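pinned: reference chain
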Amino acid sequence: MLVPYADPSKGWIWREFFDSGEYGLGLLSTEINRGKELPGNAVTFDAVLPTEALDVSRKYPNRVFIYERDGGALFANTQTSDGSRIYARAEELVIGFVATVGNYDYLYKWIFREDGTFGFESELHGLILNRTIADTACQVCAAQIQDGPGVYVAEGDQRFGTLVSPQILGVYHQHWINLRMDFDIDDPVNAVKEVNTKQIPFDAETNAKGRAFTIEQTVFGKEEEAERNLEPASNRTWVVYNPAVKSPLGHPAGYAVEPGGNTLSSLAPERFGEDTSFTQRHFWATKYDPEQLYASGKYPNQAPDGYKDSSSDTRTTTSRFTRKTSSFGTVSGSLTSPSRKIIRSCRRAEWA
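pinned: its structure tokens
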């Protein structure tokens, strides 16, 4: 996870935190209890973690939780001919933990569903990081009220944050979370493809209404090809599948990765290749390599000067144990309340 702050001034330019790699989400996990932060049906488990000296730690009480929750409608259908109806409620299994890193509390949850799909949710609680300035009122708000329609960008101290109290600025920043998923669908040899909706050009004879569209599927051959970003206009998704295991209709078994809400990295393209680069693409697919398990490297706070990394332009993505990572971010700092916020970022994977 990376948290880069927008303010480039001398006192803030260094604030680019690897909350996981620099501090350790496990070591900074916090106790969470049934009937308080968790629903009444939750069960919690203690954790034992290695210390920095590689000794076995004391027990960390109530660190991992598990519970079931209502998942809405699993299936529903009404036959209009006779009014008959079938329906089923869904139950979801939730497994997660909480880590308190400085001013933020991160709640991570894996969601497993009865229809075979699973997802990931994150909630961000706590306090935003602020700085003091001389201003006592919102600069842009005053201009908008006075001048009406137009484009407004704050100047001076308010350019990189939102005034949350007189002389207190909540600095804009992003939270980037990267998930690594090692797929082994029906045997170790898996492949990856991208799926995009493609509009058919208007034609007076073959597409007279101009609404025809189809699905375009691109199978990745090399890792470099599989560095991808979201594309809402084409409803872009990705599928990890086993080309050797097919249904009676010929469809290969696989999981489709359906992106949730996201944003673009605030990092300049010139920084691509640094240990922060996992934020600059939303999707990566690479061949499994035990030496490449972490998106920002094993030791992100000890990378040497001039460190660069990249995907291979020759190594194939169709291999034993395909590894996929997904990055998603949220933008913070524009808050109506300076004390608390909740952000949910979801990734959903389903059978293809």
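why pinned: The first helix runs from residue 19 to 23. Confidence is low (pLDDT under 50) at residues 333-352.
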